[in-house]
Amino acid sequence: MNVPVDPKTLVAEMSPVSTSEQIASMKKALLKTIQRSAYVYRVDCGGCNGCEIEIFSSITPVFDAERFGIKVVASPRHADILLFTGAVTRSMRMPALRAFEAAPDPKIVVSYGACGCTGGIFHDLYCVWGGTDNIVPVDVYIPGCPPTPAATIHGFAVALGLLEQKLKAETHVELAGEAAALPHPDIPYALRVRLEREARRMAGYRQGRDIAEEFMALLEGRAHTPGSFTLLECMMEAIAEERDPRRAEIIGRLAEVVQQAIRGEAP
Amino acid sequence: MLKLLKEIFRTGEATVKYPFAPMPVCKDFRGKPEHKAEDCIACAACTVACPANAIGMETDTAAGSRTWAINYGRCVFCGRCEESCPTGAIRLSDDFELAVGSKADLTRKAVFTLADCACCGKPFAPAKEVDYVARLLSQSARSAEEADRLRLTVSTCPACKRAQDVHQIAGMGIALQMEAGKPVKELETTP
Ligand code: SF4
Ligand code: SF4
Ligand code: SF4
């Protein structure tokens, strides 16, 4: 029998280490008066290593986090910033806590990647604690799987108080009479589905949807312009204007689908 | 030495200007999933598709509401929500600046109202979804009566539909009709 198990029941709940008032005020002072490089120690708590690669790519010459004095060090005893990556596996919990204890106060804890923030894709595994904040107090969260080097730099800037965070919690409440617009009401539903399917089959969900949207907008636009066009003419025109041969092929195929639908053939 | 200096000048500066200048991202970059709540019909397709369970839904039948919520801290930017969304309400944008100081700022919520069943009066599906499906079906309906009948059908909860079907089938007396060699009356799913 496959009974669903609540993963919460499999891990022991433990209160995370909390920082005292004094340390919190020291931390504020550190952020204000830090006159030197901020040293970063990276703690891998069982991620997939994608995050590590992005951290190292953000200290390469292209992104060069060292120009802001952000330097990766080899020992937690030198660190001002602790960077926790990974979903905190059971076996990495103790080493992570030891690294936290070894770093001198005041220290800034950054939770890096989707795994570090909440456990990410591994959040309901039996062997993970699901996020850095389950074991230590976290100051800044940098989401991403993995965060790009630019997102990493933004995260450090937020951690050091140089930039403001952009994201805010929001709640949208449905307004009275709010309704989702029907896409392309002038095109028969069955035809729209066929066009969207064909475009997505050929170009994937993102580009496929974009191309299908463009194509249908073209169809509708032509239907409303005065003067007579045959469908074939206007399709040929669109294809001739298209620079990208792959897109031209897809538009050609969509035009064929329209022709088929007009002739009443099954897809 | 001169050669080296020349090489350095030729190469120029490789380091990007970010964060002092905006960072250009490539086309179709997969950044923060942007949710347009106005276009969302609370159909839960994204909730089912999301591999990381970053998107969730909670239904509160007592309050008659369904709350959609995304946690950007859990999202792995795979784009499956965008792929599965029927209305295009959710789309991955090129915003990557997501770092926050408090975890609560990583969530975004949208509250939708539930529609009551046309038959039993109990809430059963989001009002926007029912309305959207009804409009979509009446788009291809042949007559106004058919459109009305379809709207009534989608505003009925599955339990009531089942009960009506059973009631109709019992009332049709299929066995009797077949014995008499008459054509069997078609089933209608309206109250
Ligand atoms: S957040 Fe993504 S990239 Fe980073 S460790 Fe977790 S799974 Fe790997
Ligand atoms: S991008 Fe992927 S992980 Fe993120 S919300 Fe969408 S489906 Fe979920
Ligand atoms: S799939 Fe789209 S319409 Fe459905 S709940 Fe998700 S965002 Fe809303």
TrEMBL record, chain A:
Its EC number is 1.6.5.11. The keyword ATP-binding does not apply. InterPro entries: Complex_I_20kDa-like (IPR052375), NADH_UbQ_OxRdtase-like_20kDa (IPR006137). The keyword Iron-sulfur applies. Pfam families: Oxidored_q6. One of its GO terms (molecular function) is oxidoreductase activity. Residues 48-156 form the NADH:ubiquinone oxidoreductase-like 20kDa subunit domain. Coiled coil: none annotated. It is an enzyme of class 1 (oxidoreductase). NCBIfam families: PRK06411.1. This is NADH-quinone oxidoreductase subunit NuoB. It comes from Azospirillum melinis.
Automatic annotation (TrEMBL), chain B:
PROSITE patterns: 4FE4S_FER_1, 4FE4S_FER_2. Residues 31-60, 66-95 form the 4Fe-4S ferredoxin-type domain. Keywords: 4Fe-4S, Iron, Iron-sulfur, Metal-binding, Repeat. Coiled coil: none annotated. This is 4Fe-4S dicluster domain-containing protein.
